[in-house]
Design brief:
Number of helices: 4
Strand order of the largest sheet: 1-2
Largest sheet: 2 strands, antiparallel
Radius of gyration: 16 Å
Structural class: mainly alpha
Order of helices and strands: EEHHHH
């Protein structure tokens, strides 16, 4: 992890969106993803909204896990998420 934030530190209201960087690695893609998922599950940031939930959803995405990514991946990801929201329960 790389950050200038610290316990009891104050992030100003107009903070840079890059408060911290978290990097994970592994013997292969699956291990790196699993390590990053665990790290994000344990990552605690209080007082501001973060993109951690989005990154957790991306890491859990089968298309991402299969490395089926390109410059249109994020657009497809959000389109699939929106479509999943519109499917009635039990359908």
């Amino acid at each position: 992890m790389d950050t200038a934030a610290y316990v009891d530190g104050v992030i100003p209201p107009y903070y840079d969106s890059l408060v911290a960087k978290l990097v994970a690695y592994g013997r292969d893609r699956a291990e790196a993803i699993a390590r990053m998922q665990r790290a994000l599950d344990l990552f605690i940031v209080e007082g501001i909204h973060t993109s951690i939930p989005l990154h957790q959803r991306i890491l859990a995405d089968t298309e991402f896990q299969a490395a089926n990514i390109d410059t249109q991946y994020v657009q497809r990801f959000f389109e699939r998420a929106k479509a999943a929201e519109t499917v009635p329960a039990g359908a």
